[in-house]
Amino acid sequence: MVLRAFWAYAIIFCCLGSPVEAAGIQLLDSDEGLAGAIWYPCAEEPKDVPLGDLAAIPEIRLMGVKDCPVTGTKLPLVIFSHGRGGWFTMHHDTAEALADAGFVVAAINHPGDNGNDSSQRDKMSVWASHPVDMVRLLDFMLHGWKDKDVIDPGGVGFFGFSLGGYTGLVLVGAHADFRRLALFCKEADKTENCERARSGDVPPSPQPDQRIRAAVLADAAMTFAFTPEGLSGIKIPLQIWRSELGGNGVGAASTALTASQLPGSPEIHTIPAGHYAFLAPCSKQLATAIPRICTDNPPGFDRAAFHREFDASVVRFFREHLVSDGKTR
Fold this sequence. Notes:
Structural class: alpha/beta
Distance between the termini: 41 Å
Strand content: 15-25%
Strand order of the largest sheet: 3-4-1-2-6-5-7-8-9-10
Helix content: 25-40%
Order of helices and strands: HEEEEEHEHEHHEHEHEHHH
Number of helices: 10
CATH class: Alpha Beta
Shape: globular
Radius of gyration: 19 Å
CATH architecture: 3-Layer(aba) Sandwich
CATH topology: Rossmann fold
C-alpha cells in the first residue's frame, strides 16, 4: 500500500502546468499486461482526467482531454519504459510535451515491477520481461490500437529511464551479458541473482526491435551487463542523459563509462543533480509526503526549470530523427 499511495500522489502533485494545447488521453485498462495511457495531439482545452481502476485512489487525475479525437496523420510514436518499481505516469510532463508537439506517446506499467505490483521486482526475470513488454506495447500501437492508422510506422522512438534505459539499450541493439553481475557480487552475497550469475543460469540477451529508429535514455541502470563489444550493435541515433550524482542503485561513474563506450556520435547530456531529477517535478504537497524522490541534490537545483529544458530537448531530438521533414505541430 505504501508504494501504491506513493505513485498515486505523485500523479496528483507532480505537474508542470497545462500544456499550450491539451494532450488527448486514452486509458489502457482492459488488459493487465497493457495497463497505462496513450497521449496524442488534441485541439480541445485541458481538464482533469480521472484514471479510474488504474489509480490507487479515486482522486487521481491527469491533465488532458479524455478520448479526444486524434488530431493529425502520419504521427511519430514514442513508447515509454519506466524504472524499477515505477509507474506509467512518472514522466507525464515529457509525454504531454511530445503530444503537444504532434507525437503519439504510449506508456504502460511493467507487469510484476510497478508501483502496484512488486511480485517480480527483484527477480532476474524482469531483465528479460521489460523489453518484451515494450515490444508488446509497440505491436499493440501499430496493429491493435483503434487509432493506429494515424501513426507513421517509420517514425518510432523509445524513451527510457533507469531500468527503462537498460530496456532501451537492448531493444536498440546492445547485447547484455547477465553473467557479468557476478563480477560485482561480494563473496558472501548468496542472493538468487548473484548465485544465478555465478552459475551461468541467466536469461539470454533480449532481442532488439528494428522498428525503433531513435531513443532517449536517462540514467540507464544495469550498465554492468554491457561491454564495448556488447554496445557495438547499436546503429540508431541516441540522446543520452545522465546525472552527476546518480542514486537508487545507478552509479554516476557507470553511466559515464557506458556513455563513453557507445558507438557513433550519441548526443550526451550530464546534469548536476541526482537520479530522481529525471522524474516529473514535485509539488510542495508531494515533497512533504515523499521527500526521498523530491529532494534534489545539490540544494537549489531547480527541477521544474530543468524539465522545461529537458522536455524541449527530447521533443527536438525526436523531431529531428523521426519526422521526415523535421516538423510536427
